[in-house]
Amino acid sequence: xxKTIVTALTIVSMWCAAAAWSQQAQPESAAAGPPPxxxxxxxxxxxxxxxxxxxxxxPAVGQPPITRWRYDDYIVYFEHDRVITSVADIEVGLAAGx
Length: 98
Hints:
3 helices; alpha+beta
């Protein structure tokens, strides 16, 4: 075989091996379990179904109404009945010395 053909075959086989490896290195899908905190857009019902009831609930305030639910290590904020953000509870981190 000529040197050009051998080089071409080597490059093609290396490319195929790299493509196969990159497909195996994909991260697991989100379907493997619930996210660590509720995500934006989830309804109050979805949050309760996936994460259980909150430790404490603040009543809605303002316009639009904003509700706050406190969990062990994060707080979930809702506008109407939808999550607008979830944040780590800094007091938990401070108490743990983080």
